[in-house]
Amino acid sequence: MKKAQTIYQQGDHAWRIIARDPERPDFLIDTNEYLISHKGQSLLTDPGGMEIFPSVFAAICAATDPEQIVSLFASHQDPDIISSLSLWLEFNPKLPCYVPWLWAGFIPHFGGDASTFVAIPDKGMDINLNGLVLKAIPAHYLHSSGNCNLYDPAARILFSGDIGAAILPPEHSGIFVTDFDQVIKAAEGFHRRWMGSNSAKLGWCERVSRLDIDMLCPQHGAIFQGADVGRFINWFAELEVGVLNSPD
Amino acid sequence: MQRENDLVLIVRVNEDIKAVVRLARQINMLALNAILVARRAGAVAMGFGVIADELRSFSLTLTQSMQSLMMLSYESIQIVSAHQRQQRATALLEQVSAQLAQTDFYNRAVQSDLGGSNLQHSLLQTFGALEQLILDAEDVSRFGTVISRSLKIEATYGQGFTALLGQISLDFGSYIDAIPDVLVRLHHLLKVKL
After folding, report:
1. Which residue, of A42, A93, B15, B175, has the fewest CB within 10 Å?
2. What is the pTM of this model?
3. Is this prediction's ipTM beyond 0.85?
């Protein structure tokens, strides 16, 4: 099963990453889920696909009480992001799920009803987690046409969804980026192909450059921290995206 | 209780297991302290030290027992998830069948590959295994209660250290007395399902 590891803790405010399932079959892409907790309530970002639900749920059980989870956040509509929704709703049918408004009519194909979804407008919104304000930050076209990141100003952590994602070989499966150049090498092809708009990308880089970020946490791969956060944003700003780099 | 509450049940079982693990850790810490105090007290607390060491072993046995329970509860998440997916698929097939007015289609699909009864059987087996492990843990817990009583008796021989050893044995007692209540609650949680 996956393992939950605390990456930030300040009193009763914590971020945990749920990652690296040694039993995950090779045909499924590896994902990172993040559990943000504040004063006994938690929000789970990009809860993952249906196939990995048992592994994610068990990891959360080991670390904390999943009954404290009061909401889900889906950065976009992909199956590796939110196809486990129906199982989460079996656990707690009243669990609200924040989604970019564009996908509010699509994600219900994975489960839920009209009362499940909280539509995030294009400009983003504030999400209250028991007194902690989390900010849904627009990241449209990066890669999905309706896409949001989640920023925690108190922890100075940005959940960046697919931005910063890199599929690394098993021998470099640490939670944090330790070799920036190696990670960027692994991330480059993905970002060129999957990020659809250079102007959207520059808008995002400009937007997040104004934020204080200690950790940039992607949904796949390793977490950028410290100086590597700025290095990543600068690298991404320079990268030409929307490039078809199919081998054939 | 409905099948869809199985995940909630597992979470509650798991939270109780974690509560016992926390108590076991506290007993372990207290036992280490008790062993040191017994060494300071010398010959008058030799028996106390031996029993404190037994309590340390007890806390480790209890932790191992709880870890086995925890692993089984995680395995049951896999079965419950599969069962819930199967139920969802069955419900959708029922709708298809109702719309097409073709019960054969539904019956064939359910009988052929959805395997709902197998999953339910697996789940009951897992919950049965969980119950057995809880019964085993209750035995371990009873042993802890016996050691704790012996410790209280040994504390009275502590001469100048009697008050301190008595306090330590009382602290042990409060942790150990809390364990059976949690195990009984755990057992009751599972009994409802079996």
Report:
1. A93
2. 0.89
3. no
